[in-house]
Amino acid sequence: MFEQFRENIRLSRDTYKEAREALKSVRETVNRAEPLKRGLWVAMLGGVVFGNVASYLSIAWYYQAALVLALVLFPVEIWLRRTRRQQPR
Length: 89
Fold this sequence. Notes:
The chain is an all-alpha fold. The longest helix has 31 residues, at 2-32. It is built from three helices and no strands. The chain has helices spanning 2-32, 35-56, 61-86.
């Protein structure tokens, strides 16, 4: 039983290292992405997070949709417009 416990600890340590490396890779990819792709990734992530929070709070689906539009898509659209204006042509 102790050997299995040690093996589980070793596996969890390996999993943690792999997850940390994957997160680092994701950060680098997002930082190198063009503004449109970055905005879409942020919008999807925000939509999932806000949708899950709204579901957890038992908010009706139409209020969830309005919440996602107001708190995720609208600010991302403003951010994208600002970045497009700042880019040299």
